[in-house]
Amino acid sequence: MSEVTLTAAFSTVPAGDQEAFKRVIVETVDQLAREEGSFKRAKLVFTESDERCALTAELDGVKREGVPLQIEIDQLEDAQSSAGARAQLKEALRLYFRRVRDCLFRVPDGVQPPKAGSRFFCRHLSVRPGDRVLEIGAGLGLAAVLAAKAGAAVVATDVVPGAVTAVRANAALNGVEVDARLGDCYAPVTGERFDLVCSNPPQMPTPPGADREDAQAAADNGGPDGWALLDRIIAGAPAHLVSRGRLVFTIFDFLGIKTALAKVEAAGLAPSVLARETQRIAHLRAMDQEAALPSGRPATVERLMIEGRAR
Fold it and tell me: Smaller CB count within 10 Å for the chain: N or C?
């Protein structure tokens, strides 16, 4: 007997359709559990925003960090009455559950292991099969490999040679191809355009003279105000996105949500907030330009996923 729970959030779907959509997802996952016998408990999270839907899963208490499954509104509508559409939805879920379970990553010396920000980034990064994706600052290749497993054609760049080697190794380990390139920001992809440009960039404000050469410093150092790499990623995105392409990146709220959205807008992209999560972190109050942090010395901070869509 399987146990399937679903938490759902909708923005544009009418209330009458919401329950029907949730029911078809739960019924399909329950059927999969009985047929496959590979899990007994599934905790699902489904989100819909402007008719873009994504689903993540925890199976038997194990939450794998991965690219969310993209589900079309039309697919859910058809699956309510069409056996063929229900079978297609079941197969998509079957493949997604296997993908969530089967990823393996190795962290070599000199490369920063995934932290809470990397996992948050991957949970909310959505791609479609066939998308051409660029990840800037790929690290060991967590997001790049997961995007490739979802069917995207991925270019991953990093300034650390060991990271580029790690991306290639982890791609091979997981049976996918990722075009890993050494170089700074957009330099390795001059003249190329993508459906998605994404980054979970270094953004911890670092005073002049406090730079270090270790892996953690390279992964965290955002320059004096935290925006050193972020500003370049945002400014360069329009020249590297196809029509209706997306820029997606994470920021800490103390860098300024309004500031981030304004920078994306100034670059000619339509800005929005895709997700947010509270995380524990030691940070610098001096960089909290919009008074996002409460008084005292809080142990947590919000991290956000920002999107800029080419018009």
Answer: N
Residue ranges per structural domain of the chain: 3-102, 116-310
Q: Average model confidence (pLDDT) for the chain?
A: 85
Helix (H, G, I), strand (E, B) or coil at 41: strand
The arithmetic mean of pLDDT across residues 167-179, rounded, is 94
Q: Which of 114, 226, 215, 116 is nearest to 159 (CA)?
A: 215
Name the nearest CA neighbour of 183 among 174, 175, 192, 196: 192
* pLDDT one-digit tens code per residue, 243-270: 999 999 999 998 999 999 999 999 999 9
- Check if CATH label 1.10.405.10 holds for domain 116-310: no
CB atoms < 10 A from the CB of 279, how many? 16
**Multiple choice CATH, 3-102, 3.30.160, 2.60.120, 2.30.29, 1.10.760:** 3.30.160
Ranges assigned E (strand) in the chain? 3-9, 41-49, 52-59, 62-63, 69-72, 132-136, 153-158, 178-182, 194-199, 241-252, 269-280, 300-310
> Which residues lie below 8 Å from residue 266, measured CB to CB, with a gap of 6+?
none
Alpha-carbon gap, residue 140 to 169, rounded angstroms: 9
Domains 3-102 and 116-310 share a fold: no
